[in-house]
Amino acid sequence: MYKSGKNWMVAGLMTTAVLAGLTLGNVNTTEAHAAVNNTPVAAAQKTSATSAEVQSQQTVVNSAATAVNSQTAVVASASSALASAQNLNSASAAVSGAEAQWSAAEKNAESARQAMGSASQNSQKAAKELKGATNLQHGFWKSKGSAAYDYLTNLVANTQKELDEAQAQLPDAETAWNLAHDAYEKALHSTIDHHSEEYKALKLNSEKAFNDLDAIQKTISTDKGIISSANAKLNGKANLADGTPHNLIKNKALVDSIPALQEAAQKAHNAYVAASDAASDASVIAYNALDNISAVRDAYNLPDSNGLKKMRHDAMGAPRKINSDKTEINALRTADQTYYGDAVKYASEAAIKEGQAQSAVAKAESDVAVAADQLDQAETQQKAAQAKYDANKTSLNLTLLNNAKSLTGSWQRNLHAANTALETAKNC
């Protein structure tokens, strides 16, 4: 038997040979003892033995018995040592198995804690993005951002339409100017009388063609400037009316993404809750596996050596960390739920107020449409009354004309009031 590392081992072949030899020796000695014991008896039956012979044979018997007893003790001792070594080997294997289980469980617990930390960061990030979007919607976007965005996008669209029309007219205007100018220049240097109507007509056509071309070119230049300025304001590269720059396009996209951000925040929060539960379960498994190491050692009555003490001391650091993690998990979960709850509350309040504002805008837009339609009808009636009066200037037709003008004026005022109400609703 010898010591290898932490385990007691028995030299296999040598131990087996020794034990086999002892056992065989025991059997042979017994047979020799029997032979020694029986031979004198047989001899005594045939002849008379002397006292010296009997005493000599008894000495041999006693020596053989002593040898048998001694060898039996050796066999028992060797067998006991073998059993002790086998027990120690089994105990060491059991402890090693328990340690391996704890090590695997602790690695799983550490991975679960890391996954929980990552899920917590993702949840907090998603909740922060949602809160930022709802704060933007409830604050700047509602107070001025939405109205500024609508005004500038409409300005760009309308101006672009005008620019497209001007650019489409430009080639014809350039051609007309070139023809008219060439004709005038030709007449200027010809024998045509400069006081003649023909000369005057050529000059006027040249001037008109120039003025038309100039107007189109100025419109194109002005429209490009308006579009460039509006786009700069929309992209946050120029200040708005309040003197501050805001990227209205990004703001609009962020406000529009609130439903998607709410869904993402909820998913991230659910993932964090699942990860924290998994981390807690894995920590409990690791803690139980650590306790099992001590239970196995106690079951085999292993000595409380310095190595085992150190192993236990080092291993106990894990459950302490697990207990610390449990407190951290609860704190993170509480903070995350509060953060997420605030974000959902702000989003809900903003959605309600946005709905109310949209309802007010829809009603105001309806009022504008009605007033515009009535104004169109009143203007049509006024034109008809004017035509009647021009054809037949009677007092009746004059009264009808004045009534139509009054009606037109009333609807003009109503339309102005409706437009004012609509702008007010949009800016709320």
Automatic annotation (TrEMBL):
InterPro entries: KxYKxGKxW. Residues 1-34 form the signal peptide. This is Uncharacterized protein. Residues 149-176, 361-388 form a coiled coil. It comes from the Bacteria. Keywords: Coiled coil, Signal. The lineage of its organism: Bacteria, Bacillati, Bacillota, Bacilli, Lactobacillales.
